[in-house]
Amino acid sequence: MSAGTELVSVAPYDSSSQAYSRVIPKASHPFDTREFVNKLEEAGFHRDPAQAIMEATRALLADRNNAMLQRALDKTDLENEAYLFSAALSELRTELQVKARNDAASLRSLTTLLQREVDSMNQKMREDINTLKHDIQVDMNNRKSESKEEQNQLEQDIQDLHNRFTISLSDLKTEIEQNIKWDATRRSLALVFGIAAILMTTIMLADFFTRPDAEESEKRKNGSMTDGSAITGETNLPKKAEELGLVPQYMQDGSRFV
């Protein structure tokens, strides 16, 4: 190993397997091997271990440098990647436009189909509504006719009931009038018979109480008549019942006297 600074060189990376080729420039990094070994010896390492550590460090730097160069992109790679991205984006845009047109056509077809179905349903609904209106109108007319017939029948029943009630009322009135007339006649007859019975009873009682006085008076009158006829020789005619005292007589104030 030569003393001084050593340049670590990395071989270019060949990417022939990719779609495009790129050339990675050779990179050189300053690495002072002598200074590195001296630092290791000062740290307590011997000469051989220090050189081994230096070789390992240089190999590690070379590997990391190569890996970094493989992952890095230069301007050409960036332009290629941008071109590929633009191409993919254009292809995606075209595909999206085609898909959007196809979706729009499908949507228009579906919209047209739905519009036809909606029109058909509207037509069917209008027909059903018209049929329902007709059925409702027919039912209403039938119900009106039935209601009118029921009303006429009810009026006829009311009229019949009124006629029967009038006839029954007339019969009841006639019966009541007959009962009233019969009651009046019966009461009149009862009153007449009662008055007659009272009169007969009064006459009989009056006759019963006045009979002894009348007989005594008649005897007195007969005796006086016998004496008078014998004296005067005249014949007296028989007197009336009132004069004989057979019928009771009354004064103006209603008091009875014989």
UniProtKB/TrEMBL annotation:
Coiled-coil residue spans: 137-164
Annotated localization: Membrane; Mitochondrion
Main localization category: membrane
Compositional bias per record (Polar residues), positions renumbered to this chain: 223-235
InterPro entries found in the cross-reference section: CCDC90-like
Keyword Coiled coil among record annotations: yes
A GO cellular-component term linked to this record: mitochondrion
Highest taxon in the source lineage: Eukaryota
Stretch list, region Disordered: 214-244
Record-annotated membrane-spanning stretches: 189-210
Keywords, alphabetical: Coiled coil, Membrane, Mitochondrion, Transmembrane, Transmembrane helix
Pfam family membership, one: CCDC90-like
This protein's name: DUF1640-domain-containing protein
